Amino acid sequence: VVKLQEEIAQQKLSVLKQKKLEQFKKNYEQRLNNEVDKMRKKQAELAEMEKTESELIKKLQNTQQMQKRAFGELESAIKYQGSGRSPQSSPTPKNESETAKEVKKEPEPVKEVKKETPV
């Protein structure tokens, strides 16, 4: 009778251990899946941010090109005005060399931003 009770207790203990192990495994897999989902979302967010960054850099470069062309046109207009070809055009600035120096300030070129990839 005592041996039978010990065997039953042993079986109950074994079943209980097995259930706990299965529950731990289930919890672990759930946490792992949650982490994988978080990682995928962050990667998608990063890809979207990189796309936006690229678009903004292109816009900035286009703006700089337009500014450079406008600067060239302005410089040509100042040179043309300074050559005295058109006496009826707007009056020549008092200090033409200072005006030319101010106009020649070009915007700084866009610096490439290094993208860091997550490890």
SSE blueprint and pairings:
Layout: H1 2-82, H2 96-103
Describe what you observe in this structure.
The protein is mainly α. The protein is 75% helix and 0% strand. It has 2 helices and no strands. The chain has helices spanning 2-82, 96-103. The longest helix is centred in the middle third of the chain and has 81 residues, at 2-82.
Give a nutshell description of this structure.
This protein is mostly helical and 119 residues long. It has helices at 2-82, 96-103.
Notable characteristics:
119 residues; 2 helices; 75% helix
Envelope shape: rod-shaped
Return Rg in Å. 37 Å
Count of runs of 4 or more consecutive helical residues? 2
Strand content: under 5%
Summarize the amount of helix as a percent range: over 70%
The chain-level mean pLDDT equals: 82
* Cα separation of the termini: 62 Å
How would you classify the helix and strand content by structural class? mainly alpha
Specify the biggest β-sheet: none
Instruction: Compute the number of strand runs.
Output: 0
List low-pLDDT spans: 87-104
